[in-house]
């Protein structure tokens, strides 16, 4: 495979904490995002994706402090999404250290913002997030607000439209598969990847490294967003000694207190993922003998 595949840890943020759920709901606190981000950067992540998962719901964006801290220590592209409603919102997160922005609700409500933002900041800076839910009749519909609000668009129709408006990339999330560990929606990803010429980041469903290989080869994804198998691996490897009072009222801390592992995920770190992909002739930026090489 000739194209260079990117592995992108996705960090969903609620308040000051990294959280994870299932179908973008039932959020549990996992730790501090800056700790995870630093670890993934040092392990060879190609980019990082920060999403304020409740920003649109509460009409806010509170990632500025986290972005600023991260940008000072991490030197790979950082994409930020959640609660970005205007050109000024986009400008503000780029100013504090983001390299790209991810738009969903704002793009649906005012598609012209894609065109204006692409002209002002460059297409490569503008990622449009599409949250897809499969219907009983087989159609995929696009949603916002973590799969709560139907947009009025079919996924394929919307994907083609955002490309024409100037988006440089699509972040494609299967809400049905997200957080389940059951694998990616290959049909969804291939449908969109084959319909547009801009890169498609597949997200939602990774439970083991084989799922990542399948979405690249069968789904024709250009990049893969990964959360659970990386986050739970980080907690296991780093043996975090986290105190409940660190997290106040920002989410469910039962998982951290329990010490449980989720058997539905076969966790892995980034070097293990990239080594596996390399062994299946998938090109990626690969860490070998502490040196980063493109293979």
Describe this structure in words.
This protein has helices at 33-43, 64-73, 87-95, 105-109, 112-121, 155-165, 186-195, 209-217, 228-238, 254-258, 270-279; strands spanning 6-14, 17-22, 25-31, 48-52, 78-81, 100-103, 126-134, 140-144, 149-154, 169-174, 200-203, 223-226, 285-288, 291-294. With 295 residues, the chain is an alpha/beta fold. The protein has a single domain (6-294), classed as Alpha-Beta Barrel (TIM Barrel). The strands form 2 sheets. Strands 1-4-5-6-7-10-11-12 form an 8-stranded parallel barrel, surrounded by 7 helices. Strands 13-14 form a two-stranded antiparallel sheet. Helix 1 (33-43) runs parallel beside helix 2 (64-73). Mean pLDDT is 86; it is low at 249-253 and 255-259.
Backbone shape: globular
CATH-level-4 superfamily name: Aldolase class I
Would you list the SSEs in sequence order as H and E? EEEHEHEHEHHEEEHEHEHEHHHEE
Q: Say what the CATH topology is.
A: TIM Barrel
Amino- and carboxy-terminal Cα gap = 10 Å
The helix fraction, in percent, is: 25-40%
CATH C-level category: Alpha Beta
Can you tell me the number of structural domains?
A: 1
Give the radius of gyration: 18 Å
């Amino acid at each position: 495979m000739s194209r260079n595949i990117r592995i992108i840890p996705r960090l969903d943020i609620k308040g000051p904490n990294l959280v994870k759920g299932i179908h973008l709901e039932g959020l549990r606190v996992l730790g501090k995002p800056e700790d995870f981000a630093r670890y993934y950067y040092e392990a060879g992540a190609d980019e990082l994706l920060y999403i304020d998962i409740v920003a649109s719901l509460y009409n806010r964006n509170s990632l500025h402090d986290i972005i600023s801290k991260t940008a000072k220590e991490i030197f790979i592209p950082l994409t930020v999404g959640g609660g970005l409603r205007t050109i000024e919102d986009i400008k503000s997160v780029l100013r504090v250290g983001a390299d790209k922005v991810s738009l969903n609700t704002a793009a649906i409500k005012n598609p012209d913002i894609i065109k204006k933002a692409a002209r002002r900041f460059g297409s490569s800076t503008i990622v449009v997030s599409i949250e897809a839910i499969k219907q009983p009749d087989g159609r995929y519909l696009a949603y916002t607000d973590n799969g709560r609000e139907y947009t009025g668009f079919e996924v394929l129709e919307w994907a083609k439209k955002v490309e024409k408006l100037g988006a440089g990339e699509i972040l494609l999330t299967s809400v049905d598969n997200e957080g389940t560990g059951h694998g990616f929606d290959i049909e969804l990803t291939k449908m969109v990847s084959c319909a547009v010429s801009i890169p498609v980041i597949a997200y939602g469903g990774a439970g083991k490294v084989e799922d990542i290989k399948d979405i690249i080869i069968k789904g024709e994804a250009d990049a893969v967003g990964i959360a659970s198998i990386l986050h739970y691996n980080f907690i296991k490897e780093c043996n975090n000694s986290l105190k409940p009072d660190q997290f106040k009222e920002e989410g469910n801390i039962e998982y951290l207190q329990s010490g449980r592992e989720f058997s539905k995920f076969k966790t892995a770190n980034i070097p293990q993922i990239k080594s596996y992909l390399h062994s299946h002739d998938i090109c990626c930026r690969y860490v070998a003998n502490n040196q980063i090489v493109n293979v």
